[in-house]
Amino acid sequence: MIRVLLAEDQALVRGALSALLGLEQDIEVLGACAEGESAWRELQRLRPDVLVTDIEMPGLTGLELAQRIQRHELPVKVVIVTTFARPGFLRRALDAGVSGYLLKDAPAEDLAEALRKVHRGGRALDPQLALEAWSEADPLSDRERQVLRLAGEGRSAAEIAGQLGLSQGTVRNYLSEAIGKLGVGNRIEAYRLARQKGWL
């Protein structure tokens, strides 16, 4: 049996995925979480073979969850199922050790097949996205990404500094670096472009 944990913040999608996978003879859904931190706790408690997660979730994103799994060397494969058809997201997912990356508009049977493939040690990636992922590199560092994401959410330099444990000057430097690397005029344009490319 392939033991699966789901992490998806939309209740309807979470229920549909759980029901769909529950129809498969060789797949057992151990649980379903609505946000990243509870998924992290359940991962350690249930020890599934595969985590199926969305990217955007409250608290801890699917990518951050994958990075944490990689850092702690947990023996669990990660498959991302998302609406984000952005090459930048796929590159970051692969860097975080993700084994599968599927789009939510893919045929339902593709997911079960992807889980089997990943469980056997293979990779399951959306082919068109995989091609595009290597056409343009993400220029942002992890810290620049963190600072830019918070700035894009409307936080001031002082608030960002407080949250990340940095000085306001350092925050401004990171923002300036990100704006320069992306070749835009200000932090809002930088945030929009980085989101569009899948770098945030």
Automatic annotation (TrEMBL):
PTM sites of type 4-aspartylphosphate: 54
InterPro entries, alphabetized: CheY-like_superfamily (IPR011006), Sig_transdc_resp-reg_C-effctor (IPR016032), Sig_transdc_resp-reg_receiver (IPR001789), Tscrpt_reg_LuxR_C (IPR000792), WalR-like (IPR039420)
Keyword Flavoprotein (UniProt): no
SMART domains associated with the record: HTH_LUXR, REC
Pfam families: GerE (PF00196), Response_reg (PF00072)
PANTHER family: TRANSCRIPTIONAL REGULATORY PROTEIN DESR, TWO-COMPONENT RESPONSE REGULATOR
Protein name (record): Response regulator transcription factor
Lineage summary: Bacteria, Pseudomonadati, Pseudomonadota, Gammaproteobacteria, Lysobacterales
